[in-house]
Write a structure and sequence with these properties.
- This protein is mainly beta and about 130 residues long.
- The chain is built from no helices and eleven strands.
- Strand 7 and strand 8 form a beta hairpin.
Length: about 130
């Protein structure tokens, strides 16, 4: 069973950057797309972005596009979320998730908002002060 562990969260002032990591064990991520999500207090979980199984394609929520970048190193079994120009509204618990099915067409699934998650990480807190 795959396990995902996020790290890298913290408290930063607005305009700063953070880089979150998501390390996987129990399964090779080399054939699975990965997604990042966030949940702010009192709000529903929100899709942040995703990366294809081979790392060649990404998609982002409009609220973070141009500021956040997802990358993937299949050899290290790790996915990163680089967050630049952070805003107070980015404050949330950030979690990574792995696709349920390998070798999925990214455009037909994550790129179209039709994805199925197999496992979630426990999350890491990001707090952005104004």
């Amino acid at each position: 069973q795959v396990q995902l562990v996020e790290s890298g969260g913290g408290l930063v002032p607005a305009g700063d950057s953070l880089r979150l990591s998501c390390a996987a064990s129990g399964r090779s991520l080399g054939t699975y797309a990965m997604g990042w999500f966030r949940q702010a207090p009192g709000k529903e979980r929100e899709f942040v972005g995703a990366i294809s199984w081979d790392g060649s394609s990404t998609t982002y929520a409009s609220s973070v596009a141009g500021r956040f970048t997802i990358s993937k190193d299949n050899a290290k079994n790790t996915v990163w979320l680089q967050m630049n120009n952070l805003k107070p509204e980015d404050t949330a618990v950030y979690s990574c998730a792995v696709d349920r099915v390998a070798w999925q067409s990214f455009a037909a699934t994550w790129g179209s908002g039709r994805y199925a998650v197999d496992a979630w990480g426990q999350g890491t807190q990001v707090t952005v002060s104004s």
